[in-house]
TrEMBL record:
Gene3D superfamilies: Complement Module, domain 1 (2.10.70.10), Thrombospondin type-1 (TSP1) repeat (2.20.100.10)
Coiled-coil intervals, chain numbering: none
Species lineage: Eukaryota, Metazoa, Chordata, Craniata, Vertebrata
Predominant subcellular localization, coarse grouping: secreted
Keywords, sorted A to Z: Disulfide bond, Secreted, Signal
The protein's name: WISP2 protein
Origin species: Aramus guarauna
SUPFAM superfamilies listed in its UniProt record: FnI-like domain, Growth factor receptor domain, TSP-1 type 1 repeat
Amino acid sequence: SAMALPPQVCAQLCRRPCYCPWVPPRCPRGSPLVLDGCGCCKICARRLGEPCDFLHVCDQSQGLVCDYSAAPMGTGATCNFEDGEEGCEVNGRVYRDGEVFQPSCKLQCRCLDGGFTCVPLCQENVRLPTPDCPYPRRVEVPGKCCPEWICEARDQHLLRDARAAPGPVSPLLPYPCQEWGTEWSACSATCGVGFSTRISNQNHYCRLETQRRLCMARPCPAPPAASLA
């Protein structure tokens, strides 16, 4: 929505008749072609965080308006979400900033600053062959969300005991596990869904392993809307 300006200001900004370039501008990906604030010439809609003013309008199809709240004396305005809160869209549903949601039983996500981060609810550990389990195998278990590692009958019995054990002490180990791990790495994708990794021994076997979790620094720009003209 455009700012309500006095008629004399509009008359100064909006000259009649319209004089527009013959060829409309080529817009960057995610920026649709729209009419300027005067309803005169076609321009590229400004995207989230980009500068805007009465003439250079924001992309209303993305729910953006020209935000003058942090702009001194009407200059330096930028495009922002209309309600002042950034949301994120996942599988066609929009979540509010800070909202926690589960897109599946395997993931728990949190909407944050227009993007989202997810942590796996299932262990993503990799089990290497050992003398007591030379052929580990991960299988889907009926009635359970997360796949589980299986070995021989003896090892399956130990795994069941390990899952029932509280805290970092595992019955598979004769000693408490001294937890160690690196920080989560930066997201592998600059926009859209990527993953971050860390090395940690926080598992039932107290073994170093590479763990992954999904992340999204920010949503990728939407493709330009198809024109009906």
